[in-house]
TrEMBL record:
Designated name of the protein: Putative peptidoglycan binding domain-containing protein
Upper taxonomic lineage: Bacteria, Bacillati, Actinomycetota, Actinomycetes, Micromonosporales
Source taxon at top rank: Bacteria
A Pfam short name: PG_binding_1
Organism: Actinoplanes derwentensis
Chain intervals with Basic and acidic residues compositional bias: 33-45
Peptidoglycan binding-like domain location: 162-221
Length: 228
């Protein structure tokens, strides 16, 4: 029976130990039919092991399918620790990707057009290891990780982001568009309600509706006095 390689197996064990109540609904190792029909690290490699693990975002066991803001912070902590390891190859999370062979530290690229059916990876984080280092056991300690808060290099805002720019967005939407954003909480957490408010703004402005504040949406918001 195919199983995770040694590095991912031991890394997952540490995650399970640190988050004993985490949900595993969106956990994934062995590829499904869709994965089996193409080249994927979820399929067994030459030695019969699997080099990718999908980690459910509900690390604290909340009822939210995509995890709470607090859980998002925990997911980012785990990702930061994962990427410190020489065995790490890439991570896909919340519509963004980081490949250690291509991207600068802290750089996150937009991961394709998720609205067309591509998995946005907002229910789980895809953690992939290097095949050449897959036998090296993870010996780190997740208790000591620091929240690196990875951000996309483009400066866009999307679900999972936090901070003052998110607050400015929420505050501006509440003030300028109270009809559909009047009850939006200004908490600095880009969650589902903020994403929906942005999507509504995009729809009413004739823009591409994806709930993400990219360059075009940011420029449109600026015309209404919402500067990010």
């Amino acid at each position: 029976m195919p199983a995770l390689n040694n590095f991912l197996r031991t890394f997952r064990e540490k995650v399970n130990k640190k988050y004993p109540n985490r949900k595993k609904t969106s956990d994934g190792t062995l590829g499904d039919q869709a994965h089996k029909s193409r080249v994927s690290e979820h399929n067994p490699d030459g030695d019969g092991t699997i080099d990718a693990w999908d980690m459910d975002c509900n690390l604290l066991g909340s009822s939210n399918d995509t995890g709470s803001a607090a859980e998002d912070a925990e997911v980012r902590k785990v990702i930061a620790e994962f990427l410190k390891q020489p065995q790490a190859q890439l991570v896909i999370y919340n519509k963004h990707i980081h490949n250690v062979d291509i991207d600068e530290p802290g750089e996150w690229r937009w991961y394709g057009d998720w609205s067309s059916g591509k998995n946005p990876h907002d229910h789980h984080a895809h953690l992939q290891s290097k095949q050449s280092r897959e036998d090296i056991t993870y010996k780190g300690n997740l208790d000591g990780v620091v929240n690196a808060q990875p951000k996309p290099a483009t400066g866009e805002l999307s679900r999972g982001d936090t901070g003052e720019r998110v607050k400015a967005l929420q505050r501006g939407l509440r003030k300028v568009f109270p009809l559909y954003s009047g009850d939006l909480e200004v908490d600095g957490q880009y969650g589902l309600r903020t994403e929906k408010a942005v999507a509504q703004f995009q729809k009413r402005s004739g823009l591409k509706v994806d709930g993400v504040v990219g360059g075009i949406t940011r420029a449109a918001l600026a015309k209404h006095g919402i500067k990010l």
